[in-house]
Amino acid sequence: MNRPDVRKALHIPTNHSFTWKSCSDDVFKNYIKQYDDMSGFIMNILAAKIPITFFYGDTDAVCNYLLGQKFVEGLGLKLIKPKEAWILNGQIGGFETIYNNLKFLTVRGVGHMLLSWAPVQAEYIFNQFLNNSN
After folding, report:
1. Does the residue 26 lie in any domain?
2. For 25-46, what is each residue's pLDDT tens digit?
3. How many structural domains are present in the chain?
4. Pick from 30, 37, 57, 67: most CB atoms within 10 A?
């Protein structure tokens, strides 16, 4: 994001001299929290028959999968398929629990940056979602 060719491709004006970084103290300090709970939004999406997949790296210290699992369980959705391993290329890729129109996945051995750390697993998850397959 700090390379001139990338900035040009993203149409970032050349007169902006800031240095991009993945986390910003300025944004964090000025962020105004609007919602304490997202479950209402999730339930509205599900009521519209739009499928949802939550995925977490099981070594992610930023967005812990146990909190995600607790959130999903708290929605009170009908359980379609209890937690079991999902397999990719003959190996356990993680675990999945399937509810009515919602899938909760963990990705084995992956932290916060799924796309960078496990692109093969990420592609598999996205293809499963796009093809609406279990």
Report:
1. no
2. 887 788 888 888 999 999 999 9
3. 1
4. 57
